[in-house]
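Exercise 7 asks you to align residues with tokens for two separate proteins.
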Amino acid sequence: MDNDQAWNTKLFLSLATIPFLFFTYGLLIIFYFYLSIIILDIIGFKLTKLRTRQILFIEWIVIIPPFIFWAFKYEYWL
């Protein structure tokens, strides 16, 4: 099997595997990600008088590291 044909096979199979992975694993990750964003938005925009950029930077600092840690800990790569 030459290299071009191998890539064609992989791309074709990804059309079936990507939606499967999304609906089995991805929904859980997306649910917690959006939940954390919503909670931090409520706290940031309703309870503080910070500028939008400051709130978004704080959210990024708070949200991203736990998800990166989770990905390394559980070898959870989508």
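Second protein for Exercise 7:
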Amino acid sequence: MNDRLKALDVLTGSVAAKRDALTYFADKGMSEDDVMDAYWGNYKGTIDTYLWSHNLTRYQVASKTSVKQTQLARAADKGDVRNIKLNVIFAIAETVEVTPGEVLDALIKIQDVMNIEEAELAVEEKRAQAQDEKYLKEHADEVDAALAADVKKLKESDPEGYRCYQLMVKKYVDGGM
């Protein structure tokens, strides 16, 4: 099996498929984070992910079918698989040589995984923000001193940067940000 399909199992596979894929990559010295960075660092959406896992691009689908690249680009920008037109699903299926149902099932699975990961990321971002706020409250004097030192260094080393900083602070104080 090719590495891209194994990486897709890490992203969207069943528990067993994901475990097998992680074992496969561990034998190559890669952790789950390494796989995600290497294979999903430039994630563009469900269609691109599906095509990527089959070593295909939108251009290749367009050149093999009657669907135009612009249609594929619009479909790739859709936030929900349900909004992708059937002719795009059929074109992808024709190119990959599977049924349209198999393509749709795979796209839904990819979308579901991505939605779960986005929700988990949002929770993690809120937790990190709360930790940052707590730290700032507990260490306000240290933070203020460090900021003052950094601003002084900026003023001495980069007068133009310091001027930009002052303008940004003024906008923030005046309610412009």
